[in-house]
Design brief:
15 helices; mainly alpha; single chain
């Protein structure tokens, strides 16, 4: 509550930075996440401050800024140009966080398609997987990524392969072969550490419909997820699949 109240006063970066850094440094992981949630609850109002942090020389500040932006989602679209710069950079950890934040912004991050598509061609499987997730979340506007995604469906890395297949389903057009290849990924996605991935997996299974009936046991389990968003998505998916 204190973090949100401070941010609502819209202080300058030099005022809020030491306060927030001290607060987060002394917090455990759960409390830190609550602080990020509190800042993100301000939506578009906090985005300019977060964008300034993306330009900071401190990698830690940039990473924390992206955690807030990813929680804001589509309203964080003004940050896309800076996220593209980070995604094209050499810092692997920041690149992954930038791609994940682009994914969280979704279709509003269409300007990042070229940068995310370029990341698909990198050798790091984790980068390939996160880039696939980013273009999949952007959706139909990421059509230029289709050739690169098709190459990744032949990857020896199972997670890379499955995420590429999932992304192709999101970009379209959808066919039975892709659906059958995607089902194991979506089942696995229901147990991801990332809440957004679990929600997306449940929603995607619901969109597939009756063809995803094999996922019903995993979805039933997901209705007991700690996250209300996941529980709701799983319940909705079960209804869609059962008709």
């Amino acid at each position: 509550m204190a973090a949100r109240a401070i941010a609502e006063l819209e202080p300058t970066a030099d005022v809020i930075r030491p306060v927030m850094e001290k607060l987060i440094a002394g917090a455990d992981a759960e409390t830190a996440d609550r602080i990020f949630n509190a800042l993100a609850s301000l939506g578009a109002r906090i985005v300019p401050l977060a964008i300034n942090a993306l330009k900071d020389s401190s990698a830690l500040r940039r990473e924390r800024s992206m955690r807030v932006l990813s929680k804001i989602g589509p309203e964080a679209a003004p940050a896309v140009p800076e996220l593209i710069t980070i995604a094209q950079g050499s810092d692997a950890k920041l690149k992954l966080e930038a791609l994940y934040t682009i994914a969280a912004i979704g279709p509003a991050a269409a300007a990042a398609v070229r940068a995310a598509t370029a990341a698909l061609a990198e050798s790091d499987p984790q980068v390939q997987q996160t880039a696939s997730y980013a273009v999949g979340k952007i959706g139909p506007a990421a059509k230029e990524a289709i050739p690169a995604l098709k190459k990744l469906t032949a990857s020896n890395d199972e997670l890379v392969k499955m995420t590429a297949i999932w992304a192709l389903l999101q970009i379209g057009p959808r066919n039975d072969e892709l659906v059958q290849m995607a089902l194991p990924l979506l089942n696995a996605g229901l147990t991801s550490q990332r809440e957004m991935v679990r929600v997306d997996a449940a929603m995607s299974l619901g969109q597939i419909g009756k063809a995803a009936s094999s996922a019903l046991p995993a979805l039933e389990k997901a209705t007991q997820d700690p996250s209300g968003n996941v529980r709701n998505a799983a319940a909705t998916a079960i209804k869609s699949i059962k008709g």
